[in-house]
Each structure stands twice: as structure tokens, then as C-alpha cells.
Amino acid sequence: MITGVSPNKHQPNQVLFCIYQSPLSTTGRELPLILPSKLGGYWIDPPLDRLVDVSPTSSHYAVDPESYDIMERDGEAKIYHDSSLFNSLFFLSQAPELITTFDEHRVSPNFKFGVLCQKDRQLTEEDILGNNEESEEFKEFLSILGETVQLQGFTGFRGGLDVCHGQTGSEAVYTSFRGREIMFHVATKLPYTEGDPQQLQRKRHIGNDIVALVCQEGQTPFLSDVIKSHFLHCFIVVRRIQRQEETGGAAYQVSVTAREDVPPFGPVLPDPPVFTDFREFLLAKLINAEISCYKAEQFSRLELRTRSSLLENLQAELFTRSQCMMGDQSLIAVPTSEGLRGPSEGSGGFIENFKVNVCISLKYLHV
């Protein structure tokens, strides 16, 4: 919480933030983009003890965009998913399709991310989710992410948004990047509910994302655990910074926070973490963030449990179909199980089953 604010309006950077009994004071410096959780459990990049020069004379260029590699969710799954040789290894013609469908979550080209706007002096979930107005700076930031599309009748990857009845708003931000489709759940474009301080309509989508972007307007840091969610494991925070007038254009400072059991992921932030053109970096960072989050203990443990159950069902189905094909009339081929059938938008049936299992397991394991 903010316990004291300098009365000098001409020096907004001279603010005293008292965070959980540990004061963070700044004098003529930019405040950090992210502050750690009171209870710990998150890492921050760059670390708070690293002084970051974001002056107009500092470098505004990162490494070569060609080095922004995308991580593989599962290299082996991709190999047999793409291999024609895989089809010749089974007597049952539908077996390769069933197996690759089972593993499609590991090679899925679709991603969805939350987008939050944090205005100056907003430190709570209620304040951030309650924002409705989009400033010109925020609109410019959204244009970097992708194209604003009309949801009604949208035929691309919808990321769980309603494209028929308008129940999740009328617009969203969508893009394609290196053969992948990305849908952004922008909080300000999701339905706002009067009288609901929690804005559950918005949190229902953003709280079920694994990675979220935070666009800051002002100097107020983002607290790592301010958005309460079992799924959100990583936040990438972006703040527009001032540059010398003669240089023109906008520059953005970037910081990342994730739960402590999420492994580090690329692309590596440059030093200083400031960009003038960072779309390639940001999209690659978002995708790699989600892939890395699946390695966190909560996801990996529950994924193993869910995957084992689905694998048993797959084995039983393949065995039954193979026996029928070999002439065993006592067995009747069963239709493809719901657990192996991906949803119509192609986002991967496993992920939806996985989320259901997570929600159920959390009630009993108190994860």
C-alpha cells in the first residue's frame, strides 16, 4: 500500500512506497516495474538489485530478432506428429490420428494471453480489473500486439471468447506469429459489470490464462501476486518511457515476474531492458513463458495425472479397434472418446480436460 506521497506534484518520482514494512524510496529515479510479493514465491527479471538506466541516452536496441527462438513444448511429439513414417507403424489406419490428437496440446499452434492496464496509483486487483477507458497510449500498445477484430462471426482461434452471442464483448485483439495464432483477453474489452468490484466476468477469462501482459500508465509498480489465480504463473510488465523529443517514437521498458518454480525462458532481456521495436521479442517471450510455465510443479504434477488417465483410455480404445479389425466379432468398435477429441476451434482437448482436472484437484489438494 502507499503510505506516503510527496506533496510536490512537479516531482512525481519522489514517492515513498512502504511495501509490507520494507520501504522502497526513490529520489529522481524511475520506480521499478514490479515489486515482489509479501509472501515471496516469485522471481523478477531484471532483479531489483540491478540498477537499470532508462535515460533517453541509454541503448534502445536489443539483440537480433532472428535469435528470438520459440521453445518446443515437446520435441518428440512434434517429430512423430509431422512424420509420415509414423503412419506406417500401425495396423489400424486411425491409430496415428488418435495418438497425435492425444498429444496435440504439445504441438498446438494456438495461445491465449491476458492483457491488463494498470493506471497510476493502482495497486489492487479490483482497481486494475475495473478499468474501462482505453487511453491513446494503451490503444497504441494494443496495436503492437495485433489487430483489433470483431468477435461476431470471427473464424480464427477465439481463445474461449464468444463469437456468436456477444457474451464476451464485441472486440478482441488477435494476431498470428510464426505460424501460431494468438488471442489476447484484453480486460478493457471484456464485459464490465456494474456493482461487481471483483469483475468476475473479466477475471473468468484472464484468471484462467497462464501468462498475462500488464501495460503500466504511470510509475506505480505491479505486485507479483496482486491478481489471485491458480492458473496465472507469469506476468510480463511493460511501461512506456519518455525519450528525447528529437528521437521521436515510443520506447518501452520490460520486466518479467513468475512463480519461483517456473524455469527461466528466453529471449533474454537486454541490458537495459528497453525497446523501441519489441513486437518480435514480446510475442516470442509470451509464447515461451507459457511453455515454461507448464514445467511448474502444479502443472506438471496434475498434467502427469491427467495424461496417465487419458493414456489408459487411448490404449483401451486402440486395443478394441485393433481387435475388431482383426476379426474379433465379440468386440464392438467404440466412437472416439470425448477426452481425445479437440474442440472445434482446435485449441487442444487435453488442455480443457487438464483445466477441469486442475479445478477439481485444487479443491482436494489445496494447491
From TrEMBL:
Source taxon at top rank: Eukaryota
SUPFAM superfamilies xrefs: Rap/Ran-GAP
UniProtKB keywords: GTPase activation
Example GO molecular function: GTPase activator activity
UniProt xrefs under PROSITE patterns: RAPGAP (PS50085)
One annotated Gene Ontology cellular component of this protein: cytoplasm
Residues covered by the Rap-GAP domain: 99-314
Protein name: Si:ch1073-90m23.1
